[in-house]
Structures are given as C-alpha cells and as structure tokens.
Specification:
The complex is a heterotrimer of chains A (about 100), B (about 475) and C (about 450). The radius of gyration of chain A is 23 Å and the shape is flat. Helix content of chain A is about 35%, strand content about 10%. Chain A has a domain of about 40 residues: Histone, subunit A (Orthogonal Bundle). Chain A has a two-stranded antiparallel ribbon with strand order 2-3. Chain A contains three helices and three strands; from the N terminus they run ααβαββ. Chain C is α+β, with helices and mostly antiparallel strands. Chain C has three domains: about 280 residues, no CATH class; about 80 residues, no CATH class; about 60 residues, Arc Repressor Mutant, subunit A. Helix content of chain C is about 35%, strand content about 25%. Chain C is elongated, with a radius of gyration of 28 Å. Classes of the chains: A alpha+beta (about 100), B alpha/beta (about 475), C alpha+beta (about 450). Chains in contact: A-B, A-C, B-C. The interface between A and B is large, with 49 and 61 residues. Strand 3 of chain A pairs antiparallel with strand 10 of chain C, so a sheet runs across the interface.
C-alpha cells in the first residue's frame, strides 16, 4: 500500500524528479502538507474501478493530424527566439558546460 | 460617462450613434484604473499607449466605414486579459515572478481573435500564479481584492479579470477555468462567467496549467455580453489538436426564447453540510424564480462526487508538474527556485503521482474515476436538461482566512471541479446578495450546450437584474 | 573464440525522417543545412509558454511503412506519451514519444548470423543540439534548436545479436532498408542516424539473461560500432573474471583511443514519469488508411536482388551498388527490361555504371534518356583502318617520349596515346582496336 507519512528522503527524491532545490524549511513544511494531501487523495483506493477505461482525453477526438507542409507563419527570427533569454552567444542559447565525460 | 453602468451592448450602440468615441471610452477606463487599482490590484501590466493608439484608429474606421461593426463585432470594447494569455510584445507573467519579464514573440489564438474583432486590450490581469488557486492569494504579486468588499477575496484564479470588470476598468475580463477559475471569481464579483466545453475555444498560446482540464472563457456583466464574446472566441484552431470541429452557434440570437418545460436537476451531493445556510437560501430563492419562468426542478444524483476532488488533485498536479517542466531559465524566465510555494507543492505532488511505482495507484486510478464522474453527468442529463448548484459553499471569504491549509482551499471547489473532470460547460450567474456580498449560481449543461445555458441565464438575469448592483469598495 | 561467455546485444537505432516539416509544428525540417542556428524555430519547437503540438501525418505513415517493411504488426490504436527528464536541449522538459502503445511491434530482420527480432518501431521528436565550446575562457554549451522536434523513428531489437560482426551487419541492413523506403537519408556523420548498443555477457551454462547491461551510446559509424562492442566485450570479461559484475551504466566510444568511457552512471534508472500526452488525441488506424500505407510499401529488397540475379545475371553485391531507394530500383529494372528486349547486354551497362564510365541520374532522367546515354557511350564511330593508321602515325611522331615509355614497359602510356588518337580523330573508337593498331604499328609484340 502507499505511504501516507512522507520522509525527508521522499521529499528530496520527489523534488529531484521535479528539478527543484528546496531549503530545510521548505522540506519540513512540504513534508507535512504533502502528506496530508496524499492522505486525502488516497481515498480513491476505496473505489472499485476494475472494468473502467481511463479517460486521458475528454473530447473523444482521434487522428487530429496536419499535412507535411512547411508553414513559416509561426517561424521566429533568431532575434525573436533569443529575445527573452538572459544568456546567449551569437545566435545560440548559452548555458554552463554540460559535462559528458 | 458612467462606465460601471455600461454593457457591451450599450457601448456598441453608443459608438455607432456617436454618443461617445472609442478614445473617450478607453481613456475613461484608464482614469478609473488610476483611481482604483492601487487598492484593488486587478492589473499587473497596463497597455495604455497601444490601447489609445488603437482607439484612435478605430474612431477613424467608424467614421469611414459603415459596415465596420459587422466586420469587427467587438469594435472599441475594452478588454482585460488574464496574464496567462500570451500577448505579442506585451508582458505576460502568469501571475508569477519566474517569468516576470517575459515578452512573448507571438499572440495566443484567442488574443488574435479578440484583436481582429476590434477589442482594445486595456491590460493584463492579476491571478493566482499559473492558475493555482481559487482566491487570487497565490499571486506572486499583491493579491487582488474584491471590489464589493476590499477585505475579501475576489475568487480565483482569474481574480484580476473578475475584479476589473466588476469595478469598471474593462467590459470583458478573460480567464481560464481548470477547476473553478472563471466561475468562482464571477460568483464572488457578481458577474456572468463562462467555463465553456473543453475543446470549444482554442488553448493555443494560453499558458498551460492542466492540459486536459484548461478551458478558455470570460467574464462580463451580462449574458448578452458574454454570448457576444463567445461568438468571437469559439471555434476550431489548426494550432490546437484538442479543439473540436463543431459549428459555432449564434449565441446572442437565442436570447429571449422561453424556457417553459426546462428540466432542472439539483445534484444532492452538492447541497451537503459545509454549505453556508445563507448561500443555500439564496440558491433556493433563485430556483423559485426559475420555476416561475417555466422550469421544473428535481433532485438528481451524481454518486461519484465524493471522489471528484481526490481525482482532481491527482490528475491536475500531474499535468501541472509536466507543463511547468519547461521553465528551466534557459530560453526565458529565471531559476526554478523562484516558483512560489503553491507551484512547488503542485510540482511535487504531480511528480509523485506520476512516478514509477505510484502511477497506477494514482494517475491511472484517477483517470478511471474521471470516466465514472463523466458518466454520472451523462446519466443525469438523460433525466434533466441542466443542473443548478451553488458556485461556492461559502460567501467570499476574508483575505488570509484559508491560506494556512492548502487542503482547505482545495475543498472549497467541490461544486466546480467535477465539471472540469467531465469537460462540460458551466455558467456562473449572479444569484443575489447576502450581507452585501455576491452569491453565484452555477448552471451546468451537457457538452456544447452553451446556447442553452445562455438561454436560461438570460431570462433569469432579465427577471432579477442583479448585474445593476454596483460594488461599494467596502472596508477599503 | 572464448567459449566461456556469450555476448548478448540489443540495439536501439534512431533515424531522422526527412519530412518537409517538423514533427509537431510547421517549421522547416532541415537542421543539417541551416545556415545559422535557431532559424527554424517557432513557439512549439522552442517550448514557449502556451505552445501546443499538432502531429505530422506523413511522419506517422512513414513510421508504419518502416514497421511493415520490418515485418511488424501495427497497433490499430496508438498514442503519444510524454517522457520527462531535464536537459538543456529538451525545451519542454519532456519529449513527446511513445511508451506502451508504439505504432509497430514484433518484427524481424534477417542477418547471415540468424534473425534479429524487432521489439518495436515508434515515433518521437528529436531534441536541440548542444555544442561544447570555450567562450571568454569559460567552458560553455551552446544550444541550437533547429533540430528540436524533427521527427525521429526509433527501432528497438530484442537482445538477439550475438557478436560485433552481427551488430554491424544488422545496422547496415537497417540503414539499407530505411534508405530503400526513402524516408530518411541516414547520414551518420551528421547524426541523421544514431546507433546504440546494450551489451552484456552471459556466463556459459546460464539460461537467464544477465542482470546488468551496459549502454553504448551515440555511435555514428559502423566501424566504431564494431570496435566499441569489441572493446566492451573485453572490458566486461575482465570484470567478470574477477567475480564482479560490470556497473549498469551509459558509456561512450572514443575513436582516437579506441576505448569506451563512462558517461552517466545509472545508479537509479531514470524515472521518466510517462503519461499519455493530453494535447494529442490518440491515433486510430482504420482499414482504409492502413491499406493505403501498406500499398506504399515496396517489395522487399531480397526479392529484387533474387529477381535481378535470375533475369539479368546481376549479383547482389553489384545490385546493392546501383540504387538506394525503391523508386530508383524500379526505374533501373525498367532500363534492364528495355535493354533485354532490345537484346543489348545488361551486364555491360551495369559495368559502365558501377565503374562510373557513364553517369546516369535515376531521379531526373527517363528510361529512354538513360538508354540513349548508354547507347551513345558504347557507340563507336565509323572510321577505316586506313584513316586510323594515318592518324596514329601522326601521333606517334608527335609524342616520342610516350612511345619510348611504352616500349620501356610503362603500360599506362598506351592510354595516353589512345586518348590522343581519339582527340585528333574527333571520333569515338573502341579502345582495344586502337591499342592493337598502335602496338602493331610500333612493331611491339
């Protein structure tokens, strides 16, 4: 069965999944708050959903596709594409080196 | 010019007949904003220079083109856009500090449609950051206040849009409704608020909260105004794969038709303990009026309502955690540490419910419960034409009253969230006042029944005229 | 060969489809020839707030086409899923891919070592490209999103490859098939086709697959694939001999040093938190659509090779050199048939093409044009021996050095002299005829 009382390790693991860095205070507060919410959402386990199909979509649409054509009405200039970044170099976005070795 | 006394219908007539100009109207909006917005905080960004420029252009058009109002059905109408709506070169923040300096290079489809219809963008409105909230208090900026009582919340997450229309800064406040976010501020601010059928209006360019729940709607003073705007915003969009190819009705044309024989259902699960007595009485009085207008009322059951909130608070945070992954500070915005507490909570909750080992018990399970809730509504609509419920179990609450316990806040949406799970439309209609505070009534219909909802609401509105009751800016 | 360990390899191959537009937006799909970075981006492939994907029909059809060509079954109901991880070249923080309902599954590729099962063929979007550089003395990574959201087809095999040689053969064959269908150029140097091998060693006598596997990633040549696998096998053997288990990890291949090296250790397998993408309605292949795609799949390569061997006496190795795509093969066969009917030698034609003595363009030229080019190239002009001898005489006198060289044994000089004669005569003359005349006139035996 699923846990209701999250530990600090749980919170750190979940934060990592969400690419969040939390301070000690946040860890404590979230531990309590998330545990209480999870406690609440756990009540779904009471329902029998054995033969029920899941709804990931609610329009009932299928096969919404586009023709393979170049549509440059939305294409941005590099200036537009880079306009909102804090870190760029010539026409590139720039980040600290990603080490692969 | 009495801005608070004007509707879109009035304005279009008066612009046509030259009673006032677009310029005068637009200027009046900004005068009103300068006078009142410091205490209300409805706006995050104002668009004064561009708005006045457009107003001048439109005044010229009106002089030279007799048919301009046919071509541009919202010509000169001042609108406030929720800050989730992408506006080209106009700051768009989602109520968040992380993209507090984001200037989009493109317009949302709905933004474009409204501009092409001649609407004038007054500014971008305040909101719970990313749509996460039902009161407006989760904004990363100063929370918006309810123009009817400044010590109280205007409802959220489209808090600024609701307040802006309520105090006369604009005639339309656009919003998004993922669980409550148009209907609740409409209910708390004495407005007509439409949550359309999912897929009726394009989501392209509207910053996503929960992709299979987000709907794109708006708030106005009257039903006619609301219907007029939907005629512009509804429709298939090739940029949004989830818009449905269903024809757009002439929503304003059916207003005035009678509702004799209309069957109204009251879902018994929505009228339970926790519902404020005074709110309950207000709804009961409104139902009597609807009966007088020709409707019959009976009790129905939506048996899985008890599980709706749990399903909602699994599916929505799951999609939220996914949709907020793109904010990594590389192409726009700042570091993820800048996210507010509620955003972080939902990212964490959503990452948890999607994570390996928990996906089946949470996401998949909730998706199945969603089917059951959808089926509840389908079954109910076999017995009745529409459902009526309160918008909120309580009156607009005081600022700070619910912020300590997120779970408390979540549970206040019990009458509203199930509608988003099912993807059906809901219309918030002023139901009167209690202790000087607005009470809202929700009319729910089957998929793509916006016409019917407007029809019912129009007659009710004409009978009660609650929209004429102006905000008092109490406790300011 | 060491009998103590059995090599077990499964391969994952990615190929960029050459659609005109990207997978989920209308931006131009041309990352390799873009003049500047970030010129083919839009709100969708740049992951701007509010952007939404719309799926490219052709990319889907080509994925199914590939699956059918690999003998796969097709899922009549399929969908796209979001695969979450954070990386600077992934603008949305998730990749739109396919998880549990790929378009194609359960196929097979034959190799000379035995069949290799194809687990699945699915469709996803590519990421942007990272370039590592030093700017102002600092190590940075530069990101170009021209490639972001280009359609990428992924082919996954069962762990049924048992040697580096088989891996190489499989990869080559897969590329051949993909190019035959004309859905991707598979330019490996540019990254248009990327190979990954999951390698582990199974101890002799073991029946269960090893508990670990090492992922060898981003290999862009068949040679590196072979060498990388060979290095890995030795490296893993050494570890196993010590009684230890190799780490489950991702490794890269360094061609200069001919070694593999750790890239990312998989202390915990990445949790991608897959869920169905709510922005994209599912795909349902009805019979008419599926039949339409089926009819676009050309006959298998093997069938073509066998027929050409039988009807035209062209062996497989030669056939493989003549064409890449099915359309080219069709056209060639028309040429062969035509030549055959006119009783012209097909093998001579093939020879000239292979040795580049004639250049034909299978795309632009018609069958008639190609045959006429061939005829012209083998045509010889009419000229009498008398006349020819006069010209040869002139050339011999004019080129004493070449004649001396020829007599001294430098056989290449004959080519020069023949060329000179032809130039002088302004006619095309059979090489052997000229050679014979020149030599006899020089009184060489």
């Amino acid at each position: 069965m699923v846990k209701k009382n999250l530990t600090k390790e749980d919170i750190l693991h979940i934060a990592k999944l969400g690419n969040l860095t939390l301070n000690e205070k946040e860890i404590e507060v979230f531990k309590k708050q998330l545990s209480s919410v999870i406690d609440y959402i756990d009540k779904l386990q009471e329902i029998d959903t054995k033969d029920v199909e899941p709804s990931s979509q609610i329009t009932g649409l299928t096969d919404v596709l586009r023709e393979d054509k170049v549509d440059d009405k939305r294409t941005l200039t590099p200036e537009q594409a880079l306009a909102n970044t804090q870190s760029k170099e010539a026409h590139f976005f720039k980040v600290k080196a990603i080490l692969t070795e | 010019m009495d801005l608070l006394g004007l509707t879109i219908k009035d304005v279009l007539e008066k612009l046509k007949t030259g009673v006032f100009s677009c310029r005068e109207l637009t200027e009046k909006c900004f005068v009103n904003i300068k006078k009142n917005d410091k205490k209300i905080n409805a706006f995050l960004t104002l668009n004064e220079e561009q708005a006045l420029k457009k107003a001048n252009e439109y005044d010229e058009l009106i002089k030279n083109d007799k048919e301009i109002f046919d071509k541009k059905p919202l010509l000169g109408i001042p609108i406030a856009l929720k800050d989730l709506y992408t506006t080209k070169n106009l700051r768009t923040t989602a109520g968040s500090k992380i993209i507090g300096d984001y200037y989009p290079p493109f317009d949302a489809t709905v933004t474009k449609k409204l501009i092409n219809a001649g609407a004038i963008i007054i500014g971008k409105t305040n909101q719970d950051a990313w749509g996460h909230g039902s009161s407006g208090e989760n904004t990363d900026y100063e929370p918006t206040r309810n123009p009817y009582d400044l010590s109280r919340v205007p409802g959220g997450s489209s808090s600024g849009s609701g307040a802006a229309v309520a105090y006369g800064a604009a005639l339309v406040g656009t919003g998004t409704d993922t669980g409550s976010s148009i209907r609740l501020p409409a209910g708390f601010c004495n407005l007509i608020g439409l949550k359309p059928t999912y897929g009726r209006v394009s989501r392209y360019g509207i910053i996503a909260m929960a992709s299979s729940f987000d709907t794109i709607g708006h708030m106005t003073k009257t039903v006619y105004d609301n219907a007029k705007v939907l005629e512009v915003t509804a429709g298939l969009d090739p940029y949004d794969s989830t818009t449905v190819p269903i024809k757009i009705d002439q929503y304003t044309k059916i207003l005035g038709q009678n509702i004799k024989g209309l069957k109204i259902g009251l879902p018994k699960e929505y009228f339970v303990k926790g519902l404020d007595n005074k709110v309950n009485n207000s709804i009961k009085d409104s139902l009597k009026i609807l009966e007088k207008l020709g409707a019959t009322v009976k009790e129905v059951s939506l048996p899985h309502t008890y599980y709706a909130m749990a399903a909602y608070y699994i599916l929505v945070p799951s999609e939220v955690s996914s949709n907020l992954s793109r904010y990594d500070g590389i192409r726009y915005g700042g570091a993820r540490e800048i996210f507010g507490a509620e955003a972080k909570r939902r990212i964490m909750l959503g990452s948890y419910t999607l994570s390996s080992g928990y996906y089946d018990a949470y996401y998949l399970k909730a998706a199945k419960v969603r089917t059951l809730i959808k089926q509840d509504f389908e079954k109910a609509f076999k017995e009745v034409d529409v459902l009526v419920t309160p918008i909120s179990p309580t009156l607009p609450f005081k600022i700070g009253e619910k912020t300590d316990d997120p779970l408390q806040m979540y549970l206040s949406d019990i009458c509203l969230c199930p509608v988003n799970l099912a993807g059906i439309p809901g219309l918030s209609v002023p139901s009167g006042f209690v202790d000087g505070l607005p009470v809202g009534m929700q009319i729910i219909g089957p998929q793509f029944s916006e016409e019917l909802l407007y029809k019912v609401a129009y007659l009710f509105e004409q009978e009660t005229q609650y929209y004429k009751i102006r905000p008092q800016f109490k406790n300011g | 060969m060491d009998k103590k360990y059995q090599t077990i390899i499964g391969m994952e191959t990615h190929a960029e489809l050459k659609t005109l537009s990207k997978m989920f937006c209308g931006c131009k799909n041309d990352p390799f020839h873009a003049e500047k970075p970030n010129i083919y981006t839009c709100p969708v492939c740049l992951g701007l707030p509010g952007a939404l994907p719309v799926a490219n029909k052709k990319a889907i059809e080509w994925t199914v086409k590939l699956g059918l060509a690999l003998g796969c079954k097709i899922n009549s109901f399929s969908k796209f899923d979001r695969k979450h991880y954070f990386y600077p070249d992934l603008p949305k923080g998730y990749q739109i891919s396919q998880y549990d309902l790929p378009f194609c599954y359960d196929g097979k590729v034959e190799t000379s070592f035995g069949p290799v099962g194809i687990t699945r063929v699915h469709l996803e979007e590519d990421t942007g490209k990272l370039i590592h550089q030093k700017v102002n003395g600092r190590n940075v990574s530069l990101i170009d999103f021209n490639r972001s959201s280009v359609p990428l087809v992924e082919v996954v095999t069962e762990p049924e490859i048992y040697s580096s040689a088989q891996a190489k053969e499989y990869a080559k064959k897969l590329r051949q098939i993909i190019r035959y269908l004309d859905i991707s150029d598979c330019d490996m140097e540019k990254g248009g086709m990327r190979l990954e091998a999951n390698i582990s060693l199974m101890k002799e006598g073991e029946t269960k697959l090893p508990k670990y596997k090492v992922e060898l990633k981003n290999i862009n040549s068949f040679r590196f694939l072979e060498k990388g696998i060979e290095y890995e096998i030795e490296r893993q053997k050494e570890i196993l001999e010590k009684g230890l288990t190799p780490d489950q990890e991702t490794r890269g291949y360094n061609a200069e040093k001919n070694i593999t090296y750790t890239q990312r250790s998989k202390e915990e397998a990445a949790d991608y938190r897959y869920f169905p993408d709510p922005d994209l309605p599912p795909i349902r292949f009805n019979n008419s659509w599926l039949n339409e795609i089926k009819s676009s799949v050309p006959e298998p390569l093997e069938t073509v090779f066998i027929r050409w061997e039988k009807d035209f006496k062209i062996n497989k190795q030669l056939s493989e050199l003549l064409f890449e795509t099915a359309d080219e093969a069709k056209k060639l066969e028309e040429v062969f048939s035509n030549l055959s009917k006119s009783k012209l030698p097909v093998d001579k034609f093939v020879n000239l093409v292979v040795h580049k003595k004639i250049t034909i363009d299978l795309f632009k030229q018609s069958v008639e044009e190609i045959i006429s080019i061939y005829k012209k190239s083998v045509a010889v002009d009419d000229i009498s021996d008398e006349e020819l001898k006069k010209i040869i005489d002139k050339i011999i006198r004019a080129n004493p050095q070449a004649v001396r060289d020829l007599k001294a044994g430098k056989t290449q000089s004959i080519n020069f002299l023949v060329g000179q004669v032809m130039r002088e005569a302004k006619k095309k003359i059979e090489f052997q005829r000229l050679k014979g005349l020149i030599i006899s006139m020089l009184k060489m035996s």
